[in-house]
Write a structure and sequence with these properties.
The chain is an alpha/beta fold. The protein has 2 domains: 242 residues, TIM Barrel (Alpha-Beta Barrel), CATH 3.20.20; 62 residues, no CATH class. Helix 8 links the parallel strand 6 and strand 7. The model has no long low-confidence stretch (mean pLDDT 97). The structure holds flavin mononucleotide. The site of flavin mononucleotide has 21 residues, from helix 11. Flavin mononucleotide binds next to helix 11.
Length: 316
């Protein structure tokens, strides 16, 4: 069986790679709440090759941080190949090539979704990376660059499979759409129908009900969840319960929200030092929810030490 399909077989719910969000601390939380598979934030090939501290931190996988795929990005096939060989040394279950980032600072130079401007070059690049490493290689991409009259993703899926890609994640929007407009999951279904490798559908999966619907509508091997997991990482447990036909877990109460926020705080301080760790944990304020969030926000954004942040949480 395809190793990525095997990973997803019992629980097809995946935490999306998200820069400055899906770090080791958040992956641990998401996994604890039921995410079956995680991805690192995207890591620039040039930084991997240079051994930059940031790249090393992003690519580091602790023993309990598995299965987590390492995602790299870049515009130069040679550098992507070299970076892939280095990243493979961390022995993730597979490597992922980002061919979907729409941000102009990335795609303008041909990296990320920039590859969708030249599908033939993208396929050739994937083939080279696949040949360079002894790990499975997957590709995360979009349905097209935009505004093509005919989206390339179906034909591209076939060609990426031929090039040796072990799985595809499809964010069902064009690069030009960014995060605007609805994601059209039908493209993931069309692509899935023409390949044997697992396809993971992504885009606008907002709750457990969407997970079930996305799987049913597309027949995909997995569902990747990004922004909804920032707001509500409990989505993984809720989706797994729905998929297993079990009653939904109780909604998170204030104590549970504080527990998760505190876990992120402790992990971030341990990984990044007190000042930075406290600061980056504020990214996770949305998970405190509509009652606690507004009540604590003002005090949490001014608390600069671990103890002061803990004290705010204790008051809640
Ligand atoms: C804050 C943020 C950071 C992201 N960083 C990455 C990244 O590093 N690599 C990547 O492939 N996609 C990245 N994405 C895109 C997500 O992985 C996902 O494809 C997109 O958000 C659509 O899924 P969603 O509707 O569930 O959020 C990012 C998205 C967000 C919101």
């Amino acid at each position: 069986m395809n190793p990525i399909a095997a990973l997803l077989a019992d629980a097809p719910v995946v935490l999306a790679p998200m820069e400055d969000v899906s770090d080791a601390a958040f992956r641990r939380v998401a996994r604890g709440l039921g995410a079956r598979l995680c991805f690192t934030e995207f890591i620039r090939a040039e930084q991997v090759i240079a051994g930059a501290a940031l790249a090393r931190r992003k690519a580091a996988l602790a023993e309990d941080d598995r299965p987590t795929a390492i995602q790299i990005y870049g515009a130069d096939p040679e550098l992507l190949m070299q970076a892939a060989v280095i990243a493979a040394a961390a022995r993730p279950p597979f490597l992922d090539l980002n061919c979907g980032c729409w941000l102009p600072r990335v795609s303008r130079n041909g990296a990320g979704a920039g590859w969708l401007r030249d599908p033939a070059a993208m396929v050739a690049m994937v083939r080279r990376v696949v040949d360079a490493v002894d790990l499975p290689v997957s590709v995360k991409t979009r349905i097209g660059f935009g505004p093509e009259s005919h989206m390339p993703i179906v034909d591209l899926a076939r060609r990426l499979e031929d090039a040796g890609a072990a799985a595809l994640t499809i964010h069902c929007r064009t690069a030009q759409a960014g995060h605007d407009g609805p994601a059209d999951w039908a493209w993931a279904r069309r692509a899935r129908e023409v390949v044997d490798i697992p396809v993971v559908v992504n885009g606008d999966v907002r709750d457990a009900e969407d997970v079930v619907r996305a799987l049913a509508d597309t027949g995909c091997a997995g569902v990747m969840i990004g922004r909804a997991a920032i707001q509500h990482p409990w989505i993984f447990a809720e989706a797994r319960a729905r998929l297993a036909g079990l009653p939904p877990p109780p909604p998170p109460d204030d104590a549970e929200r504080i527990r998760v926020f505190r876990a992120l705080l402790d992990a971030n301080v341990a990984a990044r030092g007190e000042r930075w760790g406290v600061q980056v944990t504020r990214r996770h304020l949305p998970l405190l929810g509509p009652r606690l969030g507004p009540a604590l926000r003002a005090r949490l954004v001014t608390a600069t030490s671990h103890a002061a942040t803990d004290a705010v949480l204790a008051l809640s």
